[in-house]
Structures are given as structure tokens and as C-alpha cells.
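Let us practice reading a record.
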Amino acid sequence: MSHLKPEECLNFFSEILSILKASHEPERVLSLIVDRIVRIYGCQTCAVIIIDTATEYLRVLSNHNLSHRYVKDFRRSLGTSAIARMLSTGQPILIKDGERESQIAGEIQLEHPFRSAVCLQIAAEHRTLGYLHADARDPEVFVEHDLRTLQSFADLASLALNKSYLYEKNLRLDIIDHETELEKYAPFLERLNTSISRAEENHENLSLLIMDIDNYKQIGGTYGYDASKRVLRELAALIKMHLRPIDAASRYGFDEIIVLRENTSMEEGIAFAETLRKAIEEKGFTQWDIHTTVSIGVAAYPKNARTEKDLILLAKGALYDAQRSGRNRVAYS
């Protein structure tokens, strides 16, 4: 448990924010965040771990007390682990004593065994970027009281990462993701906000779908990276064929697509998701006739939520349920 005085903590945050305002490079900010957490809590290990958008594996971006070889070889998939649940739901992981919670401790452990640990989501604009990990050799170094402070450090990390991503985006003033020919996420999010406002004014419904390609990595491993990109592009084209002019679709992640279905109830959204799922399952992609499936999560306005943040969070949770229950299926909130 930290005994840091409030004014000392405020000084740390001000120090980080001053660097954040002056730079587009996140590495210095993240390094400072890690250093300050280690100083406050006497951590054995502290790390900022992000989702690599090129591979969708987790990788270490900044750390304290991880060996160079461990960081270089670190390549952890999300799967359905405790980390995956935390990244999907945003609920922090708090382990007061790893000996009493050995299973979850084993799932989140990095290079060194520990007695207490915490993991907190790093997210921006409703997208999960990664997480903050801190652990200690002694039990109960981290307790509930510390979560708010640590989440503030995680939020500063999200600002640094997102600022860097936005800066790179602004260098390419283009609303189309050219690997899929779908809309990029930022303009899609603006469209979603507008659609929610219009639905509220006109007392209408809308549905939001988030889908993930179930075996995308295996396609790349079997047929090569170029073939996997062609599958993604053709799958996106298939989805666009099923959209009405008032609908929209965007690339949401490495192999994820988010779809806005205007003036559509929850039941209609589920039926539409099932139509897409079947069409993709039955389609052979590229000249190699590659077959794949998708898992889809569905949420609806206003039945499930009334804000874009809550809709996306619920659809992501439903997607996670679809993956956990066997993949190639539709789940809903």
C-alpha cells in the first residue's frame, strides 16, 4: 500500500503531463510512468504492455526489471485468459496474495513470481490499447485503495499512446482503411454518435455489431501474410454487399470489423449478424478457396445502452462470450 502524500502524487502527475503536452513520442512518458509507480510502491516489476496492431499479440513497450531477452521473446496471445477478460471488460485485476490466488497469478505473471499484483486496462476512445502491470514480492502491497491512483497512471499512458496514434493518423488525412476499403474508426465513431443522436430524436433503434475472424492467424501461418490480407479484404467486401446505404462498417482492430445497422432493433440486429455469419462461413475466399468463420457480438440502442461508449463495451463483451463459447456464433447482451 502506498503512503505517498497527495501533493507528491500530484507532482508526479503534473510532471508526466508536462512531458505529454510537449511530445508526440510516447516512450518517454511511459518510461516515466513506470519509474514513478516503482518509486511509489517499491515494485518488483512494472510494465506497460500493448496490443500490437500488426499481429494482435501482446508486447512489452516499457518496463522495470524485465530482462532484455524476456521482452524480446514476449509474445502472448489474448485467448480467454484473465488478461483477456480484463481487457474486454475494463475490470482491474487485483491480487493481494498470489499464494492464495495461484491460478490467476499464474495467468498474469511475467518474468518473476510475485505475492501481490495489479493489472489495469489502458484504453482510449473505447478501444483497448493494452494494460498496465505492477507486482511486488510481498503480499498486500496493492489493495483496493490503490486502484484509483494506478488507474490514473494507466489513463496517462492511454493519453500518450493515443496522442501518438492520432498524430500518425493526421499525417494521413484519409478516412478509408485501404487494406479493407472500409471506413477508418475515427470517422465511424463520429457517424455512430450522430446516429445515436438521430435515433434518440426520432425514437428509433439501431444495432451495433463487432466481429472477429476466428482463424485469421492460422490463415497467415498456412497461406502467408499476403493471403490473409486478401481474405480480410474480400470478407470486408462481402460485408459491404449486405449493408444498406444508411449502414456503415469500419475496421476496428487487427482482424475485427464493427458494423452500424441503422433503424434496427436488437432482434433484427441479431438476425442480420446471423446472416453475415452464415454468408462468411459458406464463402471460399481468394483463389485458394480459403474458408473461415467469424464470432459476432451484438448490442442495441436503446435496449442495451444509450451512449456509444456503453454500446461498444457491451458489443465487445458479447463478442468475448461468442469466442469463449466456441466461436463461429452470434452472442448478444
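A brief commentary: The chain has two domains: 6-170, 176-332.
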